[in-house]
C-alpha cells in the first residue's frame, strides 16, 4: 500500500498541492487531470525523487522521512518519468541492467531480472540492439522494462502512452495488466486507457483530489449534457470546474 499523508509540494512560491491524502493499493490506478493539475509532481514525490515540503509518503505503513529511508523505499519502486534519458549507443539489455543496478539488485540477479523484464514487454528479441535503433513504441516498452526490472511492488508511470500508436497502446495495456500483485499508478490524459486497463481512478485538478474510486463508480457520474463521447469522458468533465474543462 502506497499513500500520501498530509503531503505538500511546490516549486519556489508555487504551491502545487497542500495537505494531500490519498492511497493506492494493488491493481492499476489512473491519475487523471488537466495540464498543470500536479500529476507529475505527485508521481515524483511518491517516487521519492522530490522530497515533500511537508507530510509523508508511506509505504506499507512505513514513513519515508529521511534520505536513508528513501533509498530503501526506492528498491520497491519503479518510476518511469515522462521523458526518460538514455545513452543512445547503449544496448537495450544494458539499459535495463542499469535500472537493476539503480534499484540496488545484487549483480548476480541483473542478467536474469533484465531478461525477464524484457520478455514481459515483448523485447526478448531486441536485447542486443542499441537504444537509438528502437522505434518510439519499442523505446517506451524498454522504459517500462527498466521500471519493472526486479519486480518492484510499486510501479509509477508518467504519461506512458503519449505518442504511441493504437497498436502499441494495446500492447501497453496487456503489459500493465500482466503485473500481478503490483501497485501500478499511471498518469494519463487518455480516458480510453482508463476504461481499458484501470481498476481505479484518481482525478486531480489544481492540486486537489476531486475523485478517488473504482472506474465503474466514476462512470456512474456520467452527465449526458456535458461534452464528451463516452460516459467516462463526461463523468470526468463533471468533476472539473467549467473553466478547466478545455485544458
Ligand atoms: N520545475 C518546475 N518549476 C516550477 N514550477 C513547476 C515545475 N514543474 C511543474 N511546475 C508547476 O507545477 C504545477 C503542476 O505541474 P505538473 O507538471 O505536476 O502538472 P501535470 O498535471 O503533470 O501537468 P501535465 O499534464 O501538463 O504534465 C504547474 O503549475 C506547473 O507549472
Automatic annotation (TrEMBL):
Gene3D superfamilies reported for this sequence: P-loop containing nucleotide triphosphate hydrolases
Organism domain of life: Bacteria
InterPro entries reported for this sequence: AAA+_ATPase, ABC_transporter-like_ATP-bd, P-loop_NTPase
SMART domains assigned to the protein according to its UniProt record, in alphabetical order: AAA (SM00382)
UniProt entry keywords in alphabetical sequence: ATP-binding, Nucleotide-binding, Transport
GO molecular function, a single term: ATP binding
Residues of the ABC transporter domain: 2-231
PROSITE patterns hit by this protein: ABC_TRANSPORTER_2 (PS50893)
One Pfam family cited in the UniProt record for this chain: ABC_tran
Nucleotide-binding as UniProt keyword: yes
PANTHER family according to UniProt: ABC TRANSPORTER, ATP-BINDING PROTEIN (PTHR43335)
Family membership noted in the UniProt record: Belongs to the ABC transporter superfamily.
Name recorded for this polypeptide: ATP-binding cassette domain-containing protein
Organism taxonomic ancestry: Bacteria, Bacillati, Actinomycetota, Actinomycetes, Micromonosporales
Amino acid at each position: 500500500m502506497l499513500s500520501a499523508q498530509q503531503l505538500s509540494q511546490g516549486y519556489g512560491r508555487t504551491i502545487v498541492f497542500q495537505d494531500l491524502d490519498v492511497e493506492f493499493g494493488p491493481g492499476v490506478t489512473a491519475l487523471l487531470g488537466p495540464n498543470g493539475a500536479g500529476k507529475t509532481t505527485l508521481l515524483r514525490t511518491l517516487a521519492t525523487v522530490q522530497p515533500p515540503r511537508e507530510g509523508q509518503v508511506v509505504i506499507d505503513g512505513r514513513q519515508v522521512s529521511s534520505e536513508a529511508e528513501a533509498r530503501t523505499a526506492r528498491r520497491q519502486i519503479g518510476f518511469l518519468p515522462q521523458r526518460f534519458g538514455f545513452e543512445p549507443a547503449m544496448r537495450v539489455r544494458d539499459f535495463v541492467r542499469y535500472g537493476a543496478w539503480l534499484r540496488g539488485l545484487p549483480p548476480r540477479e541483473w542478467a536474469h531480472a533484465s531478461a525477464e523484464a524484457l520478455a514481459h514487454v515483448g523485447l526478448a528479441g531486441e536485447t542486443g540492439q542499441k537504444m537509438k535503433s528502437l522505434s518510439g513504441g519499442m523505446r517506451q516498452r524498454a522504459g517500462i522494462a527498466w521500471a519493472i526490472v526486479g519486480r518492484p511492488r510499486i510501479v509509477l508511470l508518467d504519461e506512458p502512452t503519449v505518442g504511441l500508436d493504437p497498436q502499441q497502446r494495446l500492447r501497453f495495456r496487456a503489459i500493465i495488466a500482466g503485473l500481478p500483485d503490483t501497485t501500478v499508478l499511471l498518469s494519463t490524459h487518455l480516458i480510453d486507457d482508463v476504461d481499458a486497463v484501470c481498476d481505479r481512478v484518481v482525478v486531480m485538478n489544481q492540486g486537489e483530489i476531486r475523485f478517488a474510486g473504482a472506474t465503474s463508480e466514476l462512470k456512474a457520474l456520467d452527465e449526458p449534457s456535458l461534452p464528451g463521447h463516452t460516459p467516462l469522458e463526461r463523468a470526468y468533465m463533471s468533476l472539473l470546474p467549467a473553466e478547466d474543462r478545455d485544458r
